[in-house]
Amino acid sequence: MSDTGKKALLVIAGLLVCVLTFFLVYQPNSEEIISLETETAKAQKEVNRLTALQAMIDQMRPNAEQHESEMDMYFAEYPSRMTEQKAIYNVYRMMVDTGLRVTGLQPSKDMTFMQRGAIVSLDSAIMSENTEAATGPAAAAEVSPETKVPVPEIIGKYATYQMSVVGKKSEIYDALDWISTNSEHMSVGNVALSFDASTGKLNGTIDVNFYSMNGNGIAYVEPDTSGIDLGSEDIFGTAEKKTKNAPPTYQE
Fold this sequence. Notes:
By secondary structure, the protein is α+β, with helices and mostly antiparallel strands. The chain has five helices and five strands. Helices cover 46% and strands 22% of the residues. Helix 2 packs across helix 5. The longest helix has 73 residues.
């Protein structure tokens, strides 16, 4: 083979090596480099975002700690659980303070109005009926309400007691005020009353909601019910209205 032919073969071989190097080595590596650069840019963007979030967390932490402390103080105003004994005790105190006659008391099941740090809507609360997820700290609050759990895991509940009542208009108003302003965190629910012309009094039912916070760490204290006289025809026996420290009485 002539020198010219050899040179041509060497040139062709060199070109072939260059082409193979480009397609088999340079191009795949180049694509991988571009991919790595893209991933690096995304990672750096995420790092910048997390760094900014950490700065915000450090800035907001004192406010969050203060807010949690305030929430603990607020939840401490509620009993860790509401028992029928406690509810009956409060109804009796209301009857003695206002003179409203309570002839019957019908409790309902506990309902959940707050869970996972959020208020539950009324419809959801009615449907929940103690069906919180029994996992983690919330389970401890559900099983042992006096156990202290993190604020977001506290379970807020209420139980509705329907009172059958008979009384004058002023006594009804006094009782509603007593419920609304009581330190035990009660609220008035449905009120269904009618006027009895033969007695000049109102009779019917008043629903009272009693609230508790399961998991707030407050030990339950049994109320002293030794002085409560349970009746046969009425839920309570004979009781006279207290005049000392009684709430203002509405005029008829």
